[in-house]
Every structure is written in C-alpha cells, then in structure tokens.
Amino acid sequence: MPRVTYVNGTYVPHHEATVHVEDRGYQFADAVYEVLAVIGGRLCHLDQHLDRLEHSLSALSIGAPVSRRVLSLIMARVVRLNRFTDGMLYLQISRGVAPRNHTFPADTLPSLVVSAWPHNGPSAEQVEQGVAVTTLPDQRWKRPDIKTVGLLPNVLARQSAKEAGAYEAWLVNGSGFITEGSATNAFIVARDGTLLTHPADTGVLSGVTRGNVLALARHLGLDVAERAFTVAEALTAREAFLTGTTVTVLPVTRIDGKPVGEGRPGPVTMNLRTLYQELRRK
Ligand code: PLP
For residue 18, how far is its CA from the centre of ligand 1 (angstroms)? Predict the structure, then answer.
C-alpha cells in the first residue's frame, strides 16, 4: 500500500513529500514535532499530544499553521489514506521557509508535515527479556521539555547505546541524576517499593506515556514519587522500565551491564505494561 503524506496543504505520495531547502526546520532545527500511536485506526491520547504541541509552539513563539480542529482532521485523513489500523503518526511544524537569517522572519507561514506508517512496537523478545540501557552524560540544551527536532545529542546518545549493545541511553545530568532516555522516559521501582521518575520540569520531556502510566500507578494504589533518582539508586532498584509512545512500557533488565533486581522483567512493570496497553486499546 503506497504511503501518503501531508505537506503544507496537499496529500502526496510519500516519495514526493518534500520541503524547501530554506525551511527553518532543516537549517536551524527551528521546528517542533509529535509522534502519536494509531490503534484500531484511532489516534491515541490526541488531546494530550495537542496540548504538548501547543506548549512547544508557544515556548518558541511559532504560530499554529491551522486550528486544533483542522489539525485533527488532517491527522485523521492521513491515517485513513494510509489504510493501516495500528501504527504511528508523525507531525512536524517548523517556523517556515525564509532566507537564512537567525532572527525570526516576518510574515512567514509555518510549515506543516504529517506522515504515518504501520508499526508493531518492540519485539516479543524485548518484552519478555527486557532491554539493556547504558548511562551517559545528558548533553542536551536546558529545555528538553520543548519537543523540538533539535535531536542531535539524543541521536548521538542512542547510537552510543547501540554500539555498547544496549537499547537505550539513560542521560545523567550534572548533579548525578538520571533525567530520561534519549527517546523515552525512565522509571525505577526503588528498593523501598516506590515507583520513581524524574519530575516533569524543564529537564525532561513530559511524556504522554509517562503521565498516563503515573496516573495508572496511582489509581492502582502504588507508592509513586516524581523525584529524580541517581545511577546508584537505579543499580539497586527492584525493577526498571522505560516509557514512550512507540514502546508503551518496556522493562529494563540491565543497566551499564549489571542486572536490575533478578535480571528479569519485574511484576510491577509487567502489570503496568498490560494495563496500559489495555487502556490504549479502549
Ligand atoms: N523523552 C524523550 C526525550 C522523547 O523524545 C520521548 C518521545 O519522543 C519521550 C520521552 C516519550 O514521550 P511520549 O511518551 O510522549 O512518547
């Protein structure tokens, strides 16, 4: 089935979907994005993603190219035209096309791109055995709460993790705390049983999955604290996992080559994974 992508007002075959060389997203990473899950043909947690998109746009003073309602209609149409039921949708808004100059251009329309593809999530082996993470210095700018396409430090960290035989890099800030992964949020079940993740301040992306998993955990009556944890705490944790739209809840069973707990996915992690998957299907 040929893919269809939306670019600035038109739906085109994916291989013809192009933007201008002077698009500011291309030249300055002057752009924001979202990735949403499509389940059973529906866009999951649409409002939460659109709220975060508005946060990113307003933090960078980029105007919305279309209203929230029209954006939702475009996204739904991209899903329909691509004719799959389970997959991912990517949307990017840049400040637009203008002669290269660092300052904001006047009267430039923001660019909007929406694409989608089928996606199955992590492999059965990754879920059953858990994945490995490595810890690396967090070398990103000081506003990772803004979901910009300026992802080079994330790309380098993920590549480094891959070369070390790991799935994800957990980023460690200057105070020795794990902020999040290169493309996922980081959680542990600490030695005392408390579920911990970094607070959703300007130091991390406020993951949609993170927020929903926290709400689910609180609903289940788990002890939950949004407080940063150190690498040492992660290494002595009972369980660890990461969250993100493309992976939902994925167990972490090795950190820097050392087993987490018994080295197998833990019960809290797997319960949250099952319930969260059910929640998304509803
Ligand atoms: N943290 C970072 C740095 C990310 O890039 C992402 C997703 O792209 C996440 C966390 C997870 O966010 P979400 O659950 O909204 O997919």
Answer: 25
Q: How far is the CA of 106 from the centre of ligand 1 (A)?
A: 31
Atom 7 (ligand 1): residue with closest C-alpha? 183
Band of residue 50 on the pLDDT scale cut at 50, 70, 90: very high
Query: Which run of H or of E encompasses 117?
Result: strand 111-118
Question: Which residues are known to be catalytic?
Answer: 147
Atom of ligand 1 at shortest range from CA of 34: 8
Q: Are 59 and 5 in contact (CB under 8 A)?
A: no
Structurally, how many domains does the chain consist of? 2
Give the CATH number for residue 31.
3.30.470.10
Give the chain's mean pLDDT: 97
* Residue at a domain's end among 100, 118, 136: 118
CA dihedral 259, 179, 30, 117 (to 10 degrees): 40
Give the distance (Å) from ligand 1 centre to CA of residue 34. 9
Q: Is the pLDDT of residue 282 over 90?
A: no
pTM above 0.85, yes or no: yes
Between CA 2 and CA 15 the distance in angstroms is 9
Select from 118, 134, 162 the last residue of a domain. Answer: 118
Query: Rounded to whole angstroms, how far apart are CA atoms 88 and 70?
Result: 19
Q: Is 273 in the pocket of ligand 1 (CB under 6 A)?
A: no
* Domain encompassing residue 93: 4-118
184 ligand 1 Cβ < 6 A: yes
- Predicted confidence (pLDDT) at residue 1 exceeds the cutoff of 80: no
Same domain as 168, residue 110:
no
